[in-house]
Amino acid sequence: MKWNNKLVLLLLTLTLLFPVSAFAAEKKEKSKGEFEIPSHVLNISKENTFPNSTEDQEVIEPSELAKELMDNVKVPIKNPDLIKMLNESALRPSPIAIGYRGMIYLGRWPLNYHSTETTINWEYQPINENELNNLGGDTNQTLNYVQQEQKEIKGALTNKIANPDDVKKMMLFTSKDKTKLPLSYETIIGKNTKKSNSYNVPVKKLGKLESFAPAVNEKGQVTFGEVYLELKGSKKALVIKNVTKQGIGAWIPIQDHVSFSYSLK
Question: For the segment 67-80, what is each residue's pLDDT rounded down to a tens digit?
């Protein structure tokens, strides 16, 4: 009887655990493939007749002084321009400056960006259309992609915010890190760019190949604060006052990628 009770308990435990494990595995798999490039989206970096420059962001590492100052504030500082300014600061308060006090206002800065949602629109902007009329033909024909005109695709913030350039940098860095995609606020598809992908157009059919530029839609929150440098004798500290937060969104194109949609009529 005791053995039967143990067996029932074991089976019940396995039954309860299995759905949770399956759900966790499914969630992990979904997260893993969330930003994978689908088969109808092709890389044209080699074929593009306009050579886009890669928007590599400089990673600013804080100096020992900047790191010491930032470690002692509660609000995380991720703004590379602010970190760069702190790196360039040379503070050497005199050890005999007894009783000296001072507060230096460094300005109101966007301190960090927190991402809440990152999605991809693979058909963000139409850029080209190729057609092949085989209505009166007697054999199948092949339609290929050829870029008719040069197209410039620009990203932007979706609403107004202070220090937009600083905010755009932080959002771009975050999106690149999350998606591992070649993102840029501006990308150009050159005229006569071609790709070897081909589409069959049967007899008595009209083939249409539409092309789109994909882009990432990034949404999140920016933390702002007034930054002060406080000096007390030989001690120095960073002080953040009047902290506020603002929601923000941005469209960031995926560089040198084209999404294709083929249809027959």
Answer: 999 999 999 999 99
